TrEMBL record:
Classification via InterPro entries: Kinase-like_dom_sf (IPR011009), Prot_kinase_dom (IPR000719), Protein_kinase_ATP_BS (IPR017441), RLK_Ser/Thr-Kinase (IPR052232), Ser/Thr_kinase_AS (IPR008271)
Chain residue ranges for the region called Disordered: 341-393
Gene Ontology molecular function: ATP binding; protein serine/threonine kinase activity
Enzyme type, top EC level: transferase
UniProt key word Phosphoprotein: yes
Protein name as annotated: non-specific serine/threonine protein kinase
Protein kinase domain boundaries: 69-346
Amino acid sequence: MKDFDVNSQSDSFTYLDKDGTFESGDKGVTGTVHQNNVPSPLSGLPEFSHLGWGHWFTLRDLETATNKFSKDNVIGEGGYGIVYRGKLINGTEVAVKKLLNNLGQAEKEFQVEVEAIGHVRHKNLVRLLGYCIEGTHRLLVYECVNNGNLEQWLHGAMQHHGYLTWEARMKILLGTAKALAYLHEAIEPKVVHRDIKSSNILIDDDFNAKISDFGLAKLLGAGKSHITTRVMGTFGYVAPEYANSGLLNEKSDVYSFGVVLLEAITGRDPVDYGRPAPEVNLVDWLKMMVGSKRAEEVVDPTIETRPSTAALKRALLTTLRCLDPDSDKRPTMSQVVRMLESEEYPIPREGRRRRKNQAGAEETESHNRKSNTDSSDRPILMTKARSDHRTNA
Ligand SMILES: Nc1ncnc2c1ncn2[C@@H]1O[C@H](COP(=O)(O)OP(=O)(O)OP(=O)(O)O)[C@@H](O)[C@H]1O
Ligand SMILES: [Mg+2]
């Protein structure tokens, strides 16, 4: 089973850099081992499982790493399987996703897809370190991102750590936008995530966003299993054309991104049956509020220092453009990046082109330098936990 040619698909992802918009720190995305000052999370592991881009783990490796998939190691469970905290024998902390039993999954296809996605690197994407295929078992091994996910910070378990400031929210959404722009516009073939939602945006200690599960929908889509239904995305985030007709392209991700952006601005769930009827659907509520000139009222009341009117308008304008019912009219993700970064409001047309060359470039992952760690970020990114303002906590 391990004899497939690891290099045979190494051209499956071509690195595109037409105009310098995107710059991967791992230019040798096609099978080269990256050179960097930071030790590889895979260093010290037995060579026999080394694939050039990552590791093929045995089930036993991962049993050891997760204390036999102990309940105590469970981080959480989603639509695709259970995620465990683990530690590799070289000390690297990982998250191991044990996929639901998917007997119908074409083995070769799974390998090829995993390898393709394993090559994709960006500072704002969770890194896939390796995988395990054994019998009917399919597991994916990711870098561990330790500071919760956006859903938990906005509505759940991380709230007792404090509330995210406006700046933190915009930093997280901008990072997310950059990673999506990379998946959609910088690699070939492009990757459509299909399940963009706040729980799939993980957060690191410096409040950088890391998108997880990219490529997972594609990986699992080939099989004829109950997981396939999962590929349809998550209620509340799915673009209307995708929900209605199954038509899918990267503009569906743009719509879902718009929902997450709105979630971050308002602190509300995309669909919340605990609210009065006109407020149950977040997107409809926003349109109603904007239509009746009450846009200023939609900001999450837990944000202590409110954004300036210009910043709020910019964020809401970007949201509305992403949520356009006509998918052709939605912006591309690199346009979204520029809209979110723009200092002026309304966003000047001329400035758009000029910024194109900058967008994404400085944020793409560099293996030659540390992430832009700035511990002074922390105080401005969080405010102390205080009484809950949500009506239906
Ligand atoms: N690489 C990772 N590092 C740390 N925690 C992770 C990692 N990947 C996932 N998690 C956490 O594990 C839990 C389960 O994630 P999972 O992706 O299975 O579910 P989900 O995101 O809620 O839904 P979906 O199945 O649609 O992705 C979540 O709390 C998530 O934040
Ligand atoms: Mg997930």
